[in-house]
Amino acid sequence: MAARRISSLLSQSFSSSSAAAPLLQGRNYKGIRRLGTTGAAEELIMPPVKVEHTQLLINGKFVDSASGKTFPTLDPRTGEVIAHVAEGDLEDVNRAVSAARKAFDEGPWLKMSAYERSKILYRFADLIEKHNDEIAALETWDNGKPYAQAAEVEIPLLTRLIRYFAGWADKIHGLTVPADGPYHVQTLHEPIGVAGQIIPWNFPLLIYGWKIGPALACGNTIVLKTSEQTPLSALYVSNLSYEAGLPDGVLNVVSGRGPTVGAAIASHMDVDKIAFTGSTATGKFVLEMSAKSNLKPVTLELGGKSPFIICEDADVDQAVELAHAALFFNQGQCCCAGSRTFVHERVYDEFVEKAKNRALKRVVGDPFKKGVEQGPQIDSLQFEKIMKYIKYGIEEGATLESGGERVGSKGYYIQPTVFSDVKDDMLIATEEIFGPVQSILKFKDLDEVIRRANATHYGLAAGVFTKSLDTANTLTRALKAGTVWVNCYDIFHAAIPFGGYKMSGQGRVKGVYSLQNYLQVKAVVTPLKNPAWL
Ligand code: NAI
Ligand code: MG
């Protein structure tokens, strides 16, 4: 494989070792790379890849949907059809849930030793690693993200994640609890059962890993619904899990639409837990469906309008680069995008000028070409939505510093767009755009920026850029967000918990905290024959 560079995809130009850290840490991450001039994109690096799996994956086998229906998945570079994928519905969800239930209640999965389960997960990770480049190609094709980002960051992060959770599988255990009276009390940490998991299109495989990793490590079985925009990569990878030795029915994948497959999973009486990542609006539906069915516990990882605060002592060049990456990474389609760039008034003018120049240099183009930093948006709906927000920004009086137009006439490419003079109540400062649109706001002092940064229903993430430890400590404590990155952004190691305050979600994915979402605690109480031992 030719493509083996993190290249300019991470858009970093930090030369100092102290202030800034890289974005997502991938397999080939070798420290901080200077960006400099990005240059023109050239040379197509698309590896040969063909779509092998388009059916539903139920009980360890690829099968057509009960209705025989399919839906097209599109190439965001052109809007053309890549493949027709089996479209699930209620009956398919019922079949998948039955398979998962049987695998949980009867199958060898839970009866295996935790070490055996762990070894299967390690083998699964090895297979993902072996097929890294094909998987990345499939991901880029279906999603539009730069190939190097998929091949060198995201798929390696998935591999790392599966290994992280493989390591947990045989380290999950309960406690012995001191209790009054002559009782021996112990807790058993048991898997919940059948986990329903619904994932979006922006990081189809990374979020897939966040979901299946802890569920499998704890011994659950799964019915997973991918996004209808990006169904291909999870089918490919899930097939590898069976090659690694997963017993039939442990991981079922039902492709299809939200209101049919998603709703059927969320309201199913025999699904014991639901984990969802996507929009806040759909997250509310999921919670409601749980309430109206069997009260299955719900974890939600939702949207955000995350502040990125650049203090007066910041090195402006570094801050520009980091804020640029925090927003534009993945075409701006990140739940935790640093989408409100607060800049101290003393460095504001210089920052705006440099942020604009950086955006003008960003290389937009075919995500399979070397050097491309930004591919197309996922689909026409998202494209239209983003263009609407750009229009609102102009109408509401923000200054359009760069971009604002579509790129080319085919596919869903948008110019990297920078607005300055953004006010807190403008739509571009309050709503999730989910696109390559940076909103820059000016602030005067810390108390003010804390108040403004927290004045949102969201609370997913925040970024702080400062040389002062006191300022960093103040901000990290004051900001109401599930993650605060200081002098870095988007660090996504498997062990770091991730999730939202307020309407950005409930519960945490990744890390040790994610395990508790997939475990029940059972207290076992036994009288002690000989109270003298107490
Ligand atoms: P969405 O929240 O509707 O889709 C996410 C997943 O939920 C998909 O698998 C979808 O099929 C499923 N779904 C949709 N309706 C459902 C229902 N009634 N019941 C159960 N599952 C359902 O997000 P969408 O429409 O793709 O994007 C809309 C906006 O959501 C974006 O512009 C962005 O602002 C936000 N979003 C946030 C994400 C995040 O990572 N937090 C990811 C994707 C979108
Ligand atoms: Mg697609």
**Poorly predicted parts:** 1-40
Using the alpha-carbon principal axes, give the shape: globular
CATH topology of the largest domain: Aldehyde Dehydrogenase, Chain A, domain 1
* Oligomeric state of shown chains: single chain
Distance between the termini: 65 Å
Strand content: 15-25%
Given the helix and strand composition, which structural class is it?
alpha/beta
By CATH's scheme, which homologous superfamily of the largest domain applies?
Answer: Aldehyde Dehydrogenase, Chain A, domain 1
Number of strands: 22
List cofactors, ions and other ligands: 1,4-dihydronicotinamide adenine dinucleotide, magnesium ion
Main sheet strand line-up = 16-17-18-14-13-19-20
The profile of the biggest β sheet is:
7 strands, mixed
Number of separate helices? 15
Characterise this structure.
Strands 16-17-18-14-13-19-20 form a seven-stranded mixed β-sheet, sandwiched between helices. The protein has a six-stranded mixed β-sheet with strand order 10-9-8-11-12-21, with helices on both faces. The longest helix has 23 residues, at 147-169. It is α/β, with parallel strands linked by helices and 534 residues long. It has two domains: 41-302, Aldehyde Dehydrogenase, Chain A, domain 1, CATH 3.40.605; 307-486, Aldehyde Dehydrogenase, Chain A, domain 2 (3-Layer(aba) Sandwich). Helix 1 packs parallel to helix 8 (258-266), helix 3 packs across helix 7 (232-243) and helix 10 packs across helix 11. It has helices at residues 90-105, 108-111, 114-130, 132-143, 147-169, 204-217, 232-243, 258-266, 280-292, 316-328, 345-361, 380-395, 427-430, 446-454, 469-478, and strands at residues 42-44, 56-58, 61-63, 70-75, 80-86, 176-177, 183-191, 194-198, 221-225, 251-253, 273-277, 298-301, 307-310, 340-344, 369-370, 399-402, 417-420, 437-443, 461-465, 483-486, 505-506, 519-527. Bound molecules: 1,4-dihydronicotinamide adenine dinucleotide and magnesium ion. Magnesium ion (MG) is lined by residues 73-74, 142, 229-230.
